[in-house]
Automatic annotation (TrEMBL):
It comes from Schistosoma japonicum (Blood fluke). It comes from the Eukaryota. Keywords: Membrane, Transmembrane, Transmembrane helix. This is Protein unc-50A isoform 1. It is a multi-pass membrane protein. The chain crosses the membrane at residues 98-122, 128-151, 193-212, 224-241. GO terms for cellular component: Golgi membrane. Belongs to the unc-50 family. The keyword Transmembrane helix applies. It is found in: Membrane. The keyword Ligase does not apply. The lineage of its organism: Eukaryota, Metazoa, Spiralia, Lophotrochozoa, Platyhelminthes. Its main location: membrane.
Amino acid sequence: MTDFGASACIKLVDQTAKPMFGKIFSCANPCTSHSVNRILSAAEKRSRYFRRLFYVRHMDFEYAIWQMWQLFFEPQRVFRNFNYRKCSRQQWARDDPAFLVLMIPFLIFTSSGFAVCMSLNFIQSIEFIFWVVFVDFIAISLLQATFFWIITNHFFIDSSRSRSSQLSTLSPSTETNPEVEWGYAFDVHLNGFFPSLCILHLLQLPFLYIILQNWFIGRLVGNTFWLASFTYYIYITFLGYRSKFTLLYKSFTTGVFLKTR
């Protein structure tokens, strides 16, 4: 190959490689919908999610277990993967219900341990497990996700950034949805609920005899477990909504207000 041909080839490869690697490593920026064929509506996402509940073979349990482990030691990595999902699939919420499915047998197992420690009979144990799974977990999770979904969409959406992102799109079909998805609010709650559940339902069990005693040490140990559980939930919930780039940060607004005074 001549020098001219080699230089032309190197120039061509360099020009094609730059945009390719630029797209790969630009997931920190808001992504457009060119990476997917079309953006699914909320009803389609919900329908696909609930359909996958009945197809266990299609669930990635290994990835769900990895997420559960990371929520204890490095929860930022979990929400970083939410950003990658937004870049690749135009969806913040999980499309795989494996995380939710794994939590139900875990709840049954830990609730059975609580029932044994509290010396409940068989009927009382069944009632206790049903209450924990269907009321404490499912019903409260639905209410909590709906509450945060309403609050964030009404008070924390950066409308100016949303309008600028919509004006920068090429066509109406490529507009980015600035609102917080209900499914994402549900996932954020599950992420915060799982470490809290492990603290209260697993780590607290060996100390249950001390906690149930009418001692100052018992009350101190019990309240410490609840404080750690509540702190974990607040911190992970904060990380979840902070990773949504369309939210306004009240700390920035407060800082500007104090600075002007």
